[in-house]
Design brief:
Blueprint lengths: L4 H10 L2 H25 L2 H17 L1 H14 L3 E5 L2 H14 L4 E4 L3 H5 L2 H7 L3 E4 L2 H9 L15 H10 L9 H18 L2 E4 L3 E3 L4 E6 L3 H7 L3 E7 L3 E2 L2 H15 L7 E5 L13 E7 L23 H5 L3 H4 L10 H11 L17 H5 L6 H15 L4 H14 L2 H14 L4 E2 L2 E2 L7 H4 L4 E2 L6 H13 L12 H10 L4
Parallel strand pairs: 1-10, 2-3, 2-4, 4-7, 5-8, 7-10
Antiparallel strand pairs: 5-6, 6-9, 11-12, 12-13
Helix pairs in contact: 3-12, 9-10, 15-17
Length: 495
Amino acid sequence: MSQTGIQARANTALHNPLLQKAVQFTTDRLRTRKANVTEAFGHWQEWRDRGRDIRAHTIAHLDYYLKQFADNVRKAGGHVHFAADATEAAQAIVSIAEAKQAKLVVKSKSMVSEEIHLNRHLEEAGVRVVETDLGEYIIQLSGETPSHIIIPSIHKTREQIRDLFTEAGGKNLTTDTKALTGFARQTLRKMFQTADIGITGCNFGIAESGTVVLFTNEGNADMVANLPRTHVVIMGMERILPTFADLEVFSHLLPKSATGQNVITYMSCFTGPARADEQDGARDLHVVILDNGRSRQLGDPDFQPILHCIRCGACLNVCPVYRQIGGHAYGSVYPGPVGAVLTPLLNPGPEYADLPYASSLCGACYEACPVQIPLHDMLVKLRQRNVREGYNKAGERGAFRAFRFVFANSRRYRAVIRGGRLGQVLLARGGGIDARIGPLRGWTEARRAPALAKRSFREHWPKLQQELAQGRLADTPTTGTPDARETAASKEGQP
């Protein structure tokens, strides 16, 4: 049977031991570090509650805070561009590059720029684009897309990175971390010094001041924002916080949830372009605010909370599915549980309708989320939407119709169970089924399918009741009904 979509991509990932080793090693480390730092920090649930409340309030009044933010950016000397979709956002940035006659653009990490395929649009306009975040630089050299929200090259081993850097001009490189980062630092420094435009993302926009806030660990974003003459910020419309007091909460929630750091290495704040008396900083600031399907979730009680997301990636690190198949199996910019929800919402239709099924619905993502987004509930609701829209497969629809037909009638149910027992005679061995045939294959390729019991509990219950009535189970009172346990206890002279 042929496989398509995430099923096929996941199957490829499951047969890539290097990818699985790299992803599981890093997610294990991030998860452990988060657990340690949040426990030492204390009162973590109270911080989560505060973060959830701030995000819920902000998104509920997003129109007000967006206007306040945009007005204050302009007051500080910056330019604001509202983009309805990816095409408008990319065109706005290409137009800025053309107006500046830019030849070289340096970028720091930005998932939104990946969402709109910005690099491709700039390159088609004749502008060279260089990623300066170490992880993004690695995957740019390999011609790939990010596979993790926080650590884009999580799927790469040190040996693979060494080979990429060697091909890019590194000499006598080893797998030593200092050697690899030293090569990247030396190469990228030249780019910072000669770039015409710097492009960054935005972790948070502060509405009360029009400030753009960046959280980074490498310091490259500071050089991207300050050395070129023009700084372009691209941000999703939901990345707003009302005040700097709110930022304090997320200065704890984000780094602790993302990488298990007590504090972020660099938290950079930009309010407008450089002033006339300032020597450092870009002389021109443009902020591009992207909708691209986000506003459709506003007012929807089922899905509006997805806009609370702060892109920490904590849900990826605990997800049993992501940890096995990595990010590229999702086939979209946003992987993991958040991607399985966000991508179909931003791109309604059949293309990504299979993503909500890439989950065990265990709820680990909700427990890990610093703002308590109920991703597991949203995945179920997206599955329901798929059924309403007819995106589920014909075989699946037929199977559930048959299920309803059988379970709606006790006689049919018992008949099917009896037939199943007879049908499994040739397949069941030692209480389980290992045969990889038909619909069983998806289960038995990775685990044993349990065989039907010779007698169901319902079938056994009448005899069990009779034995209880006769007092045969008096020596095991915990097995019977409350009345039976009391009878057995009184026979043994117990109160």
